[in-house]
Amino acid sequence: KAGVTQTPRYLIKTRGQQVTLSCSPISGHRSVSWYQQTPGQGLQFLFEYFSETQRNKGNFPGRFSGRQFSNSRSEMNVSTLELGDSALYLCASSLYRVAGETQYFGPGTRLLVL
Amino acid sequence: DQQVKQNSPSLSVQEGRISILNCDYTNSMFDYFLWYKKYPAEGPTFLISISSIKDKNEDGRFTVFLNKSAKHLSLHIVPSQPGDSAVYFCAASGASGNKLVFGAGTILRVKS
Fold this sequence. Notes:
The complex is a heterodimer.
Chain A lengths: L4 E3 L2 E4 L5 E6 L6 E8 L3 E9 L2 E5 L6 E5 L5 E5 L8 E8 L9 E2 L3 E5 L1
Parallel strand pairs in A: 2-11
Antiparallel strand pairs in A: 1-3, 3-8, 4-5, 4-9, 5-6, 7-8, 9-10, 9-11
Chain B lengths: L3 E2 L4 E5 L4 E7 L6 E7 L6 E7 L4 E4 L2 E6 L4 E6 L8 E8 L7 E2 L3 E6 L1
Parallel strand pairs in B: 2-11
Antiparallel strand pairs in B: 1-3, 3-8, 4-5, 4-9, 6-7, 7-8, 9-10, 9-11
């Protein structure tokens, strides 16, 4: 079974631009969560989607948004990019939203904002 | 406010010996605890988890211990192998949803 895939793997943008990242979960998985990893803040939860609805949101500004499609694929968008948005963006999927359920992570998208 | 803390940024262990990675948490509402391993340029890989109703869970060379009264958990790797060298993250979640709260990670180096 194929794992979680994320595209693109690397991205360079300039301040003020916007970016869209894509995540395809493991086949059959319906829950997708997004995390941001930076050297200073570590791994931080962005949001979670299940059945095309945002179920949970982390403490990030409204410039960060996401959506989930009927096939469970998910995208996240960051508008008006800032230098501090440079990070590794990780997507994780799980079958459902059962507490304690294992989440499987993709390889991440490395975003560099210049 | 760091709800999950891994106070040791790094740990160095000789091959064949035991590696013990520690994690403390402050939120008593956490019900599940997970350990992930991460290599550079890859996403975290799930290792082992434990629910708050247990105090120990084993899977091969990996054992996780939970002390609820102390809000402390530890991951034991026995015997340690050079391939175990990676960053280890402790994560916690509550009773609902999939939000994981991560610690800062501990770099484990296993020397051969």
